[in-house]
Amino acid sequence: MKNILIINGSLRKNSFNQQLAQEAAKLLEHTSTITYLNIRELPFMNEDIEFPAPASIQKIRNEIKKADGLWIFTPEYNGQIPGVLKNALDWLSRGEIARDRSTSVIINKPVTISSAAGRSAGINARISLHQLLNNMSMNVIYSEGTGIVLDKEAFITGKLKLSEQDLIALSKQAETFYHHI
Ligand SMILES: Cc1cc2nc3c(=O)[nH]c(=O)nc-3n(C[C@H](O)[C@H](O)[C@H](O)COP(=O)(O)O)c2cc1C
Q1: Ligand 1 mean position, distance from CA 115 (Å)
Q2: Is the CB of 79 inside a 6 Å radius of any atom of ligand 1?
Q3: What tens digit of pLDDT does each residue of 119-161 get?
Q4: Is 10 in the pocket of ligand 1 (CB under 6 A)?
Q5: For residue 19, which atom of ligand 1 is closest to its CA?
Q6: Is the CB of 43 within 6 Å of ligand 1?
């Protein structure tokens, strides 16, 4: 069994990205242990409070260490990833030891990206996230990943409905990701 850690950039209770993450988890749960990272309680990145690391930061670092791969789901906020996700990634990009970035827990960590968003399918957020993860020396698998377009019906019902094509795209990503971690 591989350990896959899911990160969702949306804190919303009925988040479409959370629903999408659950669909992805279904594709992997027979071969992997799936866990979800909680980024709700993290303080804002502030170098004044980096050392010793706040307990909530140490906790997410430990979860990252245990994971064979990360799957990030993100909404698109004004063409970018949400601030809460950027904040979590900024913390994780820093070394556990002061002035030694090589001790960051995410260096070379395999990661893949998906998003559920409006007409853009979150492509702007995914391009930007891809670039960010590369800057942080992560091992990005499946480049910009899969984007799901939320239609009017989804916004009315609050329920994510994947088309057959969406499911095929997500399955292809899950398979590629699994074989590279
Ligand atoms: C601050 C903000 C900015 C947004 N900007 C975009 C955007 O640029 N493109 C887009 O497709 N949707 C945008 N949306 C709509 C989100 O895609 C939509 O709220 C979606 O449901 C968020 O994902 P979630 O359901 O996982 O929370 C924005 C929403 C918020 C709150």
Answers
A1: 10
A2: yes
A3: 999 999 999 999 999 999 999 999 999 999 999 999 999 999 9
A4: yes
A5: 26
A6: no
Q: Is the dihedral of CA 139, 147, 164, 21 positive or negative?
A: positive
- The pLDDT score that the predictor gives to residue 88 is 98
Domains of the chain, CATH where assigned: 2-180 (3.40.50.360)
Structure-block tokens of residue 83: 């601030």
Question: What is the reported pLDDT for 21?
Answer: 98
| CA angle, residues 41, 32, 149, in degrees to nearest 5 | 65
Pairing mode of beta strands 32-36, 110-117: unpaired
How many residues does this entry show for the chain? 181
pTM of the complete model: 0.98
Measured in Å, residue 81 CA sits from the centre of ligand 1 at: 10
Distance 75 CA to ligand 1 centre (A): 6
pLDDT tens profile 91-100: 999 999 999 9
What residues have CB less than 8 Å from 8, skipping those under 6 apart?
15, 17, 18, 21, 36, 72, 73, 74
